[in-house]
Fold each of these.
Amino acid sequence: MKDILRNPALLFVIAGIAIICLLILYNNIAKNKKLAKNCEKIFTATFLISISGATGAALMPFSKLYPPNLLNQGTTPPTIIGMIAIYSIFLLLLAPRFRYTLNKMLKTLVITFISNPFLGFLLIMIILSFSWSTVPDISFKAGLILLATALVAMYVAQEYTWQEIYPWWRWINCLIVIASIIKPNAMAAGNWTGILGHKNQFSFFMAQSAVLWFLNGFYYPKERRMSIFIGLLSVVAVQKGGSGASKILIVVLIGLFGYLSLVKKLPVQWAFVSVVVFLILSISISIVVIDNIEAIVVDGLNKDLTITGRTDFWPQIVDKINLQPVFGYGLNGFWRGDLGLQNPAHGIMVVKTGFVPPHSHNGFLDLATELGWLGLTMFAIAYFVNLAKGVAYLTQDNLPEAGLPLFILTYQLMTNLTETGLFGCTSNWFWFVALTVRLGYDTMGKR
């Protein structure tokens, strides 16, 4: 078979057929706006699956389309060429649609910077981080990748309402659930990692999917059976992942929507205070359950008490950040095991066990290592601005779509307390930028 594929004549024929198919597709996209929009959703879904979790989907071809591959020295030239070629084909095929949509991007940028300028400041820091980075060339490339991810997220938020995003998002998650059940990638302890590389990231994602589908079944009776079935598949995956925190997450996210149905009737100011109180209580209860009630955590949730190990090295990370407190070490500039003794994270470890963490196991600390306390502050303020706008939008539309911004913000807060993935080329970063832009359109439009 390999010998056949290496035959130049055969490769020429295959390439010719592929070009013809692409030209036919391009022609149809140019003539059919509905087809163009559907293709755009498919291509964007492909990108979003490739950046799911903290390290992307470990499944062909998505693993080859993971943009941070461009930062890895071990990435082969064919992989780089193939990735650039595929994304270029996506852009070329959508060129007819872009004639009508890209002219709104300037307006989108203006709305974003006006409605939430702190995200704008964060984007500027991302672009400039190479200038103070310990690895400027890598930080420059990482900045371009994050900026490109942000631009895709802005475009999606510009073109699609929450009513359009909700079903599209659910089906993307459904594909990841099915792929992970087919390819569970069980660890030695038996815990599944699915196609997301780590059991905790996998379990969190499955919890998100379960809640999205259960909510759909509750609010849309005609789709109830299918929604409950996919939701139960996700719950099974959560159980197989073996993460106790993900089970708490399901309760919190479902409880959030029950809470929002009550809060929705309050004045905006009181609704905002109520949502903040809910988040504080959810975090507090989660920490108590995970860290202190050993009988529940170990026996009931099958969860090892790893947060204790985290609290051993978190102070060490804070001390390192305080050496470069304002701007941090630049994108991808802190956890640099390849630098040996020059690694900024050198010496961080759990003394009792000798465990050397590969990241902070906290998304907020990881952000601070790369962009300093200033970058974390910009993100935190942008987060609270989004929270306020999410509450305002909650009172203007119907559930469940009206609650999606607060759902995303709650999910990101809860999952990044003990794991990473908040910042970087991840689905978390994608959705944070997307909801910022979408809320800018929604709230400014209403006023």
Amino acid sequence: THPGHFLGMVPEGALKPAFRKRLRGLEETVSAFILYAASDGHCEALEGTNLLLGRSAAAGSSWNSELAARPLFVTASSVGGQETVPSGWVAICPARWQETAAWSGAGRDRREPDYRELKERVAADLLERIRRQAPEVGEGARAVAVATPLTLRDFAGSPAGGLYGVKPKVGQYNPQPAVRIPGLYLTGQATAAPGVLGAAISAFLTCGHLFGHDFLRKEVLACR
């Protein structure tokens, strides 16, 4: 989750005001619209591989929405192979927090009908795009659910729906494991680097603080 959530877990005076301000101002990684789809047949095109779709070449056509200009990542969500169990796939399309910010103040069960209409429109647009650009994946598929930046905020704990926590970028100093509170360390993919590798790197840095960085490096070199 975003390190900014850490601020609500510690006493007000436990951290310097400048450090608190820096944690609150950390920029997140990009958010997304995520389409979950099911298909009655096994999709061989996604067997052992993923699909990256670039901008649609059909610019100006009646079906071509603004979402068609964004890159699209499609991956299988089940192995399939059993006739009684539908196969499925997941499509991830970059999105901005501002696209759903208008509904961010309401709880999940109290959002306006136009928020549901947005999700239905996103599902229809992405499904239609995949049917046209990758018919071997889209044909016979049906939308099951859609996630938005708000979904990622509500269920993954990212304040602006970031997919991978805090953004690694030039000019932004992401937090290190050690803080002013003895025995407490910030660890996870939202600090040192994004993703699974980022979580492992962050854990390595934290272990260095616990056992000594030189000791840890010697242990690693001994395993070469």
Amino acid sequence: LPRALFKLDEATRSNALTLLEPEDAEDLIEELHESQGADLIEELSAQQAAALLDEIDSDQRVDILAEMTKADAEAIIREMSPDEARDALALLAYGKETAGGLMITEYLAYRAKMTIDDVLNDLRQNAEKYSDYAVQYVYVISETGVLEGCVRLRDLVLSPGDTPLEEISIKNPFNVKVTDSLEELERFFNRYVFFGVPVVDNFSHLVGVVQRADVQKAHGDATLKSFQ
């Protein structure tokens, strides 16, 4: 489908993309390299582009914005929803090959004193929103947002509903810093067989999750650039 789309002339391609619902266009954009996605989205109006980027995962959204001219990126960010715009600006401030630049901000985190029933009720009430999250753990944080632990979904489902999260959480989970380099992330994932790892700032606040697949992709892109 992406190959077919790029065989169209620019005007027809833009019209085709605007005929899709944002959720469907998102699926298409996710099949493209970020440079291709940026080229495609830059053909839209800032308002149309913002509606589309609002639907895309935070890490890919930032990669696409980083491929655009500064003027185009700023115009689109101004049209995005306030929460997504703030998130994009924060991620753009990190280097592309750091944990901060590679992390996603779609994760589940709950206060340590909350019970399992509290968490399960939130999951049910927001099932549609969370359906696209790549979730294997929920993270446990303090009242100020400091990462304190994580809970496997299996333990969440099988424990009594009145149990506080802090009683079943894995304490002091592995984490990486927002400033950790791609090389440091590669060493981490070579040592530990994890799907993803939480990212914390200099004050140990949970700010995102880096996925193994994104580190592997970034490594492949960096290797390709070294040959060019």
